[in-house]
Amino acid sequence: MYKRVLLKLSGEALGNNEECFDLDMLDYVSSEVKKIVEAGIETSIVVGGGNFVRGRTLSKLDFDRVTSDYIGMMGTVMNAMALEASLKKKGVKAVAMSALDVACVQRHNPAKASELLKQGYVVIFGGGTGRPFFSTDTTSSLCASEIKADIILMAKNGVDGVYSSDPNIDKSAKRYDVLSFDDILNMNLKVMDSTAASMCIDNGIEAFVFDMKEDSNISKAAFGQASGTHIVIERGK
Questions:
Q1: What is the pTM for the complete model shown?
Q2: pLDDT tens-digit profile of 69-82?
Q3: In sequence order, which ranges of the chain are alpha helices (DSSP H)?
Q4: CA 222 – CA 97 distance, rounded (Å)
Q5: Backbone phi, then psi, for 101, in 5-degree steps?
Q6: Closest CA to 74 of 50, 41, 45, 44
Q7: Between the CA of residue 111 and those of 30, 54, 85, 147, 196, what are the distances in Å?
């Protein structure tokens, strides 16, 4: 069992443009995280902002990339705050941190985050990296490196791992049980961007890709009991 994990959630997992927050999903995620914490695993979360705004929507508005990225980052802060509130309702100690300056949210601080994790708090990282041009994949790799997480748990919506092609389109797509980050890069598999993958390699952090919509799969992933794709630093070692 892992000692410290970082859970990567998409914003779309928590809601959509019509209903920014899916209350049942917020409750489910919080319940799953509570199981992980109660098992003694130190837990942090990085969440996207796609339930508020998506890149393809902003591209239609013809905004410049910097402005669009900051809008997206602010969406992730709102999700971090919502997760903090939802976890607290379940009696879980939680703190949202932001890489952007937001008066009502603690400023991103890796040393403080590590200390809070040791004290049993769930730390939720919002605001991305605080800079444009970086994805929440890179945010996850960066935060996991800063707090020395054992693994990044990459929760997907309805996809139970990494496939050779989109399984929703290609019925012959092959699911991989184990891949290396070099495999991800060389095969151009759309799991995470190259910056995120390289950071994981440099800092020795593995990842696990799984379907969060399967019952209790978030906690099962943290306990090493879920099916999915394990992404390792170097296969065979």
A1: 0.93
A2: 899 999 999 999 99
A3: 23-38, 55-60, 65-89, 110-118, 136-147, 181-186, 194-203, 217-222
A4: 22
A5: -75, 110
A6: 50
A7: 24, 31, 23, 8, 21
